[in-house]
Amino acid sequence: MKALRVYEFGTPDLAVLEDVAIGDPGARQVAVRVEAAGVNPLDLKILAGSMQPVFPVSMPYTLGTDIAGVVEAVGPEVDRFKPGDRVVGRLDPTAGGGFAEYAVIAAQSLCPIPEDMSQEQAAALPTGAGTAWLALFGVGQVRAGQRVLIHAAAGGVGSFAVQFAKQAGAHVIATASSKNHPLVRELGADEVLDYRHEDFAKRLQDLDMVLDTVGGETLERSWQVVRPGGTLVSTVDPGVQARGDIQARFVFFKHDAVLLNTILQVFQARQLQVVLDTVHPLDDARAALEQVASGHARGKVIIRASR
Length: 307
Ligand SMILES: NC(=O)c1ccc[n+]([C@@H]2O[C@H](COP(=O)([O-])OP(=O)(O)OC[C@H]3O[C@@H](n4cnc5c(N)ncnc54)[C@H](OP(=O)(O)O)[C@@H]3O)[C@@H](O)[C@H]2O)c1
Hints:
single chain; alpha/beta; Quinone Oxidoreductase, Chain A, domain 1; 2 domains; 7-stranded mixed beta sheet; 6-stranded parallel beta sheet; 29% strand; globular; binds NADP nicotinamide-adenine-dinucleotide phosphate
């Protein structure tokens, strides 16, 4: 099978598509014929070597964590899935293996894909939607009536966070560049600010929560807009700490099939739009990595296995 591998840390140009052996599933594992894989900034951080303290990988490493596909074979202790089932899940980042024609994954990491969901839509969910949910309802505690600012609202995490916060009854304020304002409003934002041309810190104050998915000076200015007793949640800065009476929390996303299943149910209830940017063939997977590396993906970038 073909797999996108790297032999050293660096940039997307180091990734090579190679023929490698298809793995056999262990007792509690499932071999999945990958149809679509979602690309995340995490893939690029692993590739750069900057995630080694958290997700230590060894070389050669096959990139990719978020996969959707069809069950090819199951281990002897797996009874929840059978060959032919459509499934979605997230591989352990330390193991990787998603940008390939086949992947071996723990059965407990998988969920069935609803009938009316495409493989590309499913592959978009695990990390992006899971992180958005965890940030809002696990790490943060968004409730109806609260005023919430979501940065990078057109991105892989933000496009889901806007929808979840709106569904929870929050007043949602979002940042995005102007070309993405119609999209972000359609997802449910009540107000959208163009971060390129206006300073949100001068326009906003007394918010209950800020979800920072950008870091740097965006995170720094975000302190100014949170009310005393409010919360700043960051997906980017692990060192974020409370200041005065403003709470601060870092989100560390850990995949959980129960959470993914909850998100799939939101989709089945027709309350979740999955925003897909470009779908790249596996043969051109480097272009998918480069698109995410640009920092301006619109929703999720997907790699489609090209058998
Ligand atoms: N800690 C965790 O467990 C965890 C989990 C998931 C993600 N993350 C991290 O969270 C970050 C975001 O992930 P993602 O998947 O959402 O990234 P992404 O999809 O690559 O984000 C792209 C979006 O960012 C927007 N953007 C870029 N600069 C911006 C700025 N200064 N202000 C507002 N929006 C800006 C772009 O909007 P325009 O095109 O309109 O400019 C684009 O839509 C990454 O660093 C990722 O590694 C962490």
